Every structure is written in C-alpha cells, then in structure tokens.
Amino acid sequence: MSAPNKSYDPVEVEALKPEEIERARNEALDAVSAAADLEALREVKAAHAGDRSPLALANREIGALPPHAKAEAGKRVGQARGAVNQAFKKRQEVLEAERDERVLAEEAVDVTLPYDRLPAGARHPLTTLSERIEDVFVAMGYEVAEGPEAEAEWLNFDALNIPPDHPARTMQDTFFVKGRQGGAAGEDGGDVSGVVLRTHTSPVQIRSLLDREPPVYVICPGRVFRTDELDATHTPVFTQVELLAVDEGLTMADLKGTLDHMVRSLFGEDIETRLRPNYFPFTEPSAEMDMVCYVCHGESVGNPDRPCRTCSSEGWIELGGCGMVNPRVLTACGVDPERYSGFAFGFGIERMLMFRHNVEDMRDMVEGDVRFTRPFGMEI
C-alpha cells in the first residue's frame, strides 16, 4: 500500500497559486469600488462572492489537498474572501446612504406650496342649514323624525283636517301617484286612500303621534313636492322643516318661546319675532311668524336714505306658519284633546337660506353648479 504524498506542493494547483488568489481578490475589490448603485453591487456580489466566483472555486480545491497543505491554502483563500466581503459591506453602506439621501431630496414635500391646486369640494348649503336647525332642537330635547316621500293621501290631508274639497288636493297643487278609490276614506271599509308625493312634512307628525304615546317632541325635516313652476322664488321640489310638540298644558306662550329660541340661535341674540293671525286647517289658533330683519333691524322702515333689500324696507321677514294643533288632528291620531294640547310650525329651508345669505334666485340651489356651493365650504 502506498504512503501519502507528503511532498505534494499546493502551489502547483493553478487556482490556489498566490498570484491567482491575489488577482481574483483585486478584481473583486475593483468591481466593488466601481459599483455605482445597489443593483450593480448585487451583480458584483454574484460574480465575485457567489458560489461560482473564482475565490469560491479556489476554496473548493482546498479539500483535495493533503492535510499538511490545507492550512496555508485555506488561510490564503480565507483572507482574500474576507477582504472582498468587508469591501462589499462598506460599499453597500455607502450606496444605501446615497440612495436614502437621494430619495429624501427627490420625494420631498414642500409644505409651503399652495394646497388648493385641485378645487376643493363643498357640502350643499341646504344640507348644512338643515343639520344646524336639527342641532338647535336636538339640544332642546326634540327627536328627529323621518317619513316616506310618497305618502298616503289620508296622512297627507285627511288626518290634518284638510277636507276632500280643499284646493290643495287638486292636481294644480299636488302630485298624485295613485288616486283615491271609491268615496271618502274608510267609506267601504277598504284601503281607499290615494298616494301622493307629500306636499309638506306634516304627515311625519301624524306618523309620530300614531307611533308614540304623548308627550311627543319631534322635528321633521325633508323634501316636499308641489306643482309649482321653477323660477326665482319657487321650485317644485323644496326642503321643509316642521316641528310638533304634544304634551299636557302646552300653550301659545310655549310656542312663542320656542320660536324665539330658534330664531336667535340661527340669526343672533338680538332678533325678535312676532305672530300675526292666520288660518291653517291643522292648527287653531293659527299665526304667521315674522322676525325682525336681521340686516336693518327695522331701521329702514320709512327711511328712504337707508333702504334694505332683505326686507324691502318693511322691517320684518316672514318665515312660516305656526299655531296650536287642531283638536281634530289630535283626535284623528288617537290623542285625547281634553288632556293634551300641542303646537306646531313649519317653514321652507330654501327661504331661510335666501334670508341668511342673500341668495336672490332659488334656481341656483337646484342646478348643481359648484360655483354656488363652493363658497359655503365643508362646514359640518
């Protein structure tokens, strides 16, 4: 049996020659230094420090050497590979720092630039004003009630003491979805009530009385429909808000105090109101509510030197109708008029918007032009 070849010289292995190891190391170091970015550095690592790199192949040759020759060859290759890895790590840190600095410079946000390069949106002022009115009454303990826009004719008229021959029930004022069947409501014991697009939000008050036991305090905002021509002061679809309070011992004084609080909350603490006698089928007694002009405060009356466009120099602005709930309405809803009384009022929010912001043409509110809504902003 032959003895080990202890005279074997590892220098004779081409890949392990000192000059070859030095050459491979220098090429790797030069390539690392020349890498301009992280992507190029990754390619350099694969070529000079990967499994198929010259130094990796040289490292494999060490295993074929006799034991006494492995230590020197391993030291030589290990030092070369360590130098390459150390250079790679340092170059990577430098390139990452350059990348981060470049990203900060290229993706920096100048907070001093104008923020409105894209047009800002806006809520419709009718929505904003409606919610503000709701907030006033919710703070007083009222509940916001809603109902369908296609309403039973009985709820829209009969329960409100509006008789069948009332002019408001003709096609000239009301959009009918389904006509009344037969004669008067309930005459044949069947469902004979027609269906209309509600002409006011009062049916929501009726529904509230039918669904709740007194005391009842509700506010009813929503869209209503009437067969009006669209012009500067009329629209067939508009927004109305009505209030209903039914409890023991309510009087006109409670109604007046509630109106005063609403007007002062919306127009200022120095605004006064007044009630003028009027007639509504669903209230008795009934009144029209006026408030003193919030622009001239009545000083334009009889003063040609200080005319007021808002109130036409009359000193007062009409807001809407109000009054004590007619006992017939309470009876229709199953409420005892001998024990309970109530008050109600209603007005159009478009009309109030015209007063508050000097809007001259109601068509501007429904045409959807952003130039009208944008000045009102995004108030919530």
Produce the secondary structure layout.
Blueprint: H1 18-34, H2 38-48, H3 54-61, H4 67-106, H5 125-138, E1 143-144, E2 150-152, H6 153-156, E3 176-178, E4 195-197, H7 202-211, E5 216-225, E6 237-247, H8 252-267, E7 273-280, E8 283-292, E9 316-325, H9 327-332, E10 341-348, H10 349-357, H11 370-373
Parallel strand pairs: 1-5
Antiparallel strand pairs: 2-4, 3-4, 5-6, 6-10, 7-8, 8-9, 9-10
Helix pairs in contact: 1-2, 1-4, 2-4, 3-4
Word description of this protein:
This protein has helices spanning about 20-35, 40-50, 55-60, 65-105, 125-140, 155, 200-210, 250-265, 325-330, 350-355, 370-375; strands spanning about 145, 150, 175-180, 195, 215-225, 235-245, 275-280, 285-290, 315-325, 340-350. With about 375 residues, it is of the alpha+beta class. The strands form two sheets. A seven-stranded mixed β-sheet has the order 1-5-6-10-9-8-7, sandwiched between helices. The longest helix has about 40 residues, at about 65-105. Residues about 185-190 have low confidence and may be disordered.
